[in-house]
Amino acid sequence: MSTKILIAEGNLEEENKNFIKSGIPTHTESLKESLSFFTNDLDIDVVNASSEKKINSIINDLKKYDALIWGGSSLNIYHDTIEIRRQIEFMKECFKSIKSILAICWGMQVAVTAAGGEVKKSTNGAHIGIAQNVEINKKGINFPLYKNKKNIFNTPAFNFDEVATIPKDSTILASNKVNKVQSLNFKTGISEIWGLQYHPEITYDKMIRLIKFRKDKLINIRKVFTNETDIEEHINLIEKENKISEKSLRLQELQNWLNYINAN
Q1: CA distance linking residue 59 with residue 167, whole number of Å
Q2: Cα–Cα distance measured from residue 208 to residue 238, given in angstroms and rounded to the nearest whole number
Q3: How far is Cα 26 from Cα 9, in angstroms, rounded to an integer?
Q4: Cβ atoms 204, 245 nearer than 8 A
Q5: Are 128 and 181 in contact (CB under 8 A)?
Q6: Homologous superfamily of the 3-263 domain (CATH)
Q7: Residues 203, 30: contact at Cβ < 8 Å?
Q8: Distance between CA atoms of residues 201 and 252, nearest Å
Q9: Any idea of the CA torsion for 199, 200, 205, 207, to the nearest 10 degrees?
Q10: Rounded to whole angstroms, how far apart are CA atoms 130 and 242?
Q11: What is the pLDDT of residue 122?
Q12: Mind spelling out the 3-state secondary structure of the chain?
């Protein structure tokens, strides 16, 4: 029997249309592609809680899913919009019905907020396409998320925010200089959540395309780069990492999660 997985799309429909116009895969498409690297024996549905008109019928049917993956987004959760509130409320419903949740970047921020934690703008800068020197701590080394993973690693990432207050009884599993909470584990309702602040499921090639796609905002609004020359230098750094990165090692967390849900 196929494993039945629900993917929650974090971006608004408008942002996904912008991705498609620019030839960039949506985050859901990236997730599907990465999952297919390990198996095609998955029965996958997709929901966008920000705009799904039949959300109540989906909520009533959540128990049919073996697991949930909640992916990334360009949103900031402290902006109190109706679309963000819908996502938080939907996550709370998932806590009541789905046993295993892999919450990636924005997904982790939604899960943490829904469970009573807090997310704020990062005080130590941002990850633009890459997170360097993510270090697994002593508790993380023995956690199934990190089986066969190097203790210190680089990984695709794109975030300006961070988990400032973790939910009750959470365990931080990995950190780096930018984000103290690079990954964590907690339980709430019937759900066990594995949260990642980075993106193992997104390629460095896509990250580079996202940087180019967002370059004006990165310079003029986010102010993480001074000019296009700074951006090109940063892209060169990511390209060097891309040349030495091994796909199976980049995706190790995804494989470990699939193995875990299939065993449980």
Answers
A1: 23
A2: 8
A3: 9
A4: yes
A5: no
A6: Class I glutamine amidotransferase (GATase) domain (3.40.50.880)
A7: yes
A8: 9
A9: 10
A10: 10
A11: 97
A12: CCEEEEEECCCCHHHHHHHHHCCCCCHHHHHHHHHHCCCCCEEEEEECCCCCCCHHHHHHCHHHCCEEEECCCCCCCCCCCHHHHHHHHHHHHHHHHCCEEEEECHHHHHHHHHCCCEEEECCCCCEECCEEEEEECHHHHCCHHHCCCCCEEEECCEECEEEEECCCCCEEEEECCCCCCCEEEEEECCEEEEEECCCCCCCHHHHHHHHHHCHHHHHHCCCCCCCHHHHHHHHHHHHHHHHHCCHHHHCHHHHHHHHHHHHC
Q: Do 91 and 28 contact (CB within 8 A), yes or no?
A: no
Which residue numbers in the chain have pLDDT < 70?
1
210 phi/psi in degrees, rounded to 5: -65, -40
Determine the pLDDT at residue 59. Answer: 98
CA 140 – CA 260 distance, rounded (Å): 15
| Segment 81-85 long-range contacts (CB within 8 Å, at least 24 positions apart) | 83/12, 83/50, 83/51, 84/50
Token pair for 217? 């905002």
Q: In angstroms, how far apart are the furthest CA atoms of the chain?
A: 53
Interatomic CA distance for residues 144 and 156, integer angstroms:
20
pLDDT in the model for residue 45: 98
Q: Are the beta carbons of 218 and 228 closer than 8 angstroms?
A: no
Structure tokens at 195: 């949260």
Domain segments of the chain as ranges: 3-263
Q: Give backbone dihedrals phi and psi of 44, rounded to 5 degrees, phi first.
A: -110, 130
d(CA 8, CA 46) in angstroms, rounded, equals 6
Q: Which of 18, 20, 25, 35 is nearest to 6 (CA)?
A: 35
